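FW: tagging you since you asked about this chain on Friday. Here's the raw sequence from the shared folder, copied in full. Didn't touch anything.
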Amino acid sequence: MTLLEDLEGLGYETDFKQIPRPAAARWEQVTLLKSRIVLNALTRNPSKVVVFVDVDCRVLGPLDELVANPRATSRSISDPGCGAQEA
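HL: got it, structure written out here
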């Protein structure tokens, strides 16, 4: 299964956008792109809670805790207590 299948199976709306990887980019540069990606998602979805999940992750259970408390950003999405797990 894929991340998209996981999320759709749990009933979550998705807003996936393919972002081209910059040529010869180092991991630091790719990591810095994530803040822009999240900002763009928040701009496209101003009245919704946005949960950023790396595409290589799996979501095996509800993300209710993250959705209910969007300011709890210090919790890792790979924490099994959040209902998600890295692939």
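FW: The two ends are 10 Å apart (CA to CA).
HL: agreed, and Helices lie at 3-9, 27-44, 64-68.
FW: great, closing this out.
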